[in-house]
Amino acid sequence: MSQNPVRFGLVGFGAWGQFHAQSIAGNPAAQLTAIVAPSDESRAAAAKAYPQARIFAEHGQMLAEVKLDIIDIVTPSHTHLPIAIAALNAGCHLLLEKPMALRIEDCQAIIKLAQERRLQVAVGHEMRLSSQWSEIKRLIDRGVIGQPQYVLVELLRKPYRQGASGWRYDAGRVGSWVLEEPIHFFDLARWYLEGAGDPVELYAYGNSRDPQRPQLYDNFSAMFRYANGSYAVVSQTLAAFEHHQTVKVSGTKGAIWAGWSGALDRTLEPSYFVKVFDGQKLEDVQLKQHSGEVFELREEIARCIKMVGGEAGPAATGRDGLWSTGLCLVAEESIRQQRPLPVGEMLKF
Ligand SMILES: NC(=O)c1ccc[n+]([C@@H]2O[C@H](COP(=O)([O-])OP(=O)(O)OC[C@H]3O[C@@H](n4cnc5c(N)ncnc54)[C@H](OP(=O)(O)O)[C@@H]3O)[C@@H](O)[C@H]2O)c1
């Protein structure tokens, strides 16, 4: 990696963007060079917190005026596509928050342009960088539970935040609530089962407790299966409290059970565990680092610095982002049609 710090342009300085800013500014190999925030209020907050950064109201102006290595896009989901295209056209790598975009064609357009420009796209599935959720992948890859046949990723939590100007409760701008949090679980389950190839079929259910927004599901469950018979269940309720996530994986030899609990998703004091059974003995796995999205975000920024330096690929690639988005969209369609749907052909890329 070069001695010069990697120059980040951060687009979006909202609830999650501010955590991105902290993680970038806290990494000595990175420089938070510029921040884009449309409202006067957010720009003032960004200027106060990061006086060394240049602050802009609009990404086009930033891309025209500042030399940057990577653009970190943490804006409402319906704005990801145009910002990603502009950043790639300006010759910058991307850290693009999930969902990559709201439509499969848009994810494909981002991947295609990045390939043409020989630029990298990292998608914000930071759970792949978690000490806890990645430990499960390591156990699977080491063959400790045999061949994985069943994965459950489940979350009980409090309702989503509104987001700036209420975008997260507006179907036109959020796209779908499945694209908000279950998208991470689709990615995680697909990662754990990657030895089985690509999923082939998906069936989903969802319901809402608010008749004003029937298409934004408070309760959501989906099952998807592979050609070899293994399958995954992704399930979430938002009609609850706090933040409690479970992962269970069973294989031909043994099983893994992991849990994470916090009063909030971004707590710095969560409780968590991983238990593994190799078919003979049950063990509590000791983790080397805290587990939680704030810790994972720091790892994600560190990984992006290596990615820009050519030392590592993204933890979740554009193709992974396309798949996680695609599984969410097929799930939405499955709920509408009330039947299982094939996924493979739709998502081939
Ligand atoms: N990976 C994860 O775990 C994770 C966690 C949370 C969120 N996310 C994703 O991150 C994104 C942002 O979520 P959030 O919770 O931070 O939302 P948020 O709190 O509503 O913040 C969004 C920010 O984007 C700014 N913005 C809106 N349109 C913009 C544009 N065209 N250009 C530049 N900035 C713009 C808003 O600026 P103003 O304040 O000036 O209006 C706001 O500050 C979403 O895609 C979400 O799905 C991912």
Describe the structure.
By secondary structure, the protein is an alpha/beta fold. The chain has two domains: 6-126 and 298-318, 3-Layer(aba) Sandwich (Rossmann fold), CATH 3.40.50; 131-287 and 325-347, Dihydrodipicolinate Reductase, domain 2. 33% of the residues lie in helices and 25% in strands. The protein has eleven helices and 15 strands. It has helices at 15-25, 40-49, 59-65, 80-89, 104-117, 133-141, 171-174, 182-192, 293-308, 318-337, 344-347; strands spanning 6-11, 30-36, 54-56, 70-73, 93-96, 121-123, 148-157, 201-207, 219-225, 231-237, 243-251, 255-262, 271-277, 282-284, 341-342. A nine-stranded mixed β-sheet has the order 14-13-12-11-7-10-9-8-15. Strands 3-2-1-4-5-6 form a six-stranded parallel β-sheet, sandwiched between helices. Helix 2 links the parallel strand 2 (30-36) and strand 3. Helix 1 (15-25) packs across helix 9 (293-308) and helix 4 runs parallel beside helix 5 (104-117). The two termini are 31 Å apart. The mean pLDDT is 96. NADP nicotinamide-adenine-dinucleotide phosphate (NAP) binds next to helix 1.
Features:
2 domains, binds NADP nicotinamide-adenine-dinucleotide phosphate, 11 helices, Dihydrodipicolinate Reductase, domain 2, 349 residues, Rossmann fold, nine-stranded mixed beta sheet
Low-confidence stretches: none
Number of domains: 2
Listed once per kind, the bound small molecules are: NADP nicotinamide-adenine-dinucleotide phosphate
The coarse silhouette is globular
Order of helices and strands: EHEHEHEHEHEHEHHEEEEEEEHHEH
Rg over alpha carbons: 20 Å
Mean pLDDT: 96
**Which class of the largest domain in CATH terms?**
Alpha Beta
- Could you say what the CATH architecture of the largest domain is? 2-Layer Sandwich
Separate helix tally: 11
- Order the strands across the largest sheet as they lie in space: 14-13-12-11-7-10-9-8-15
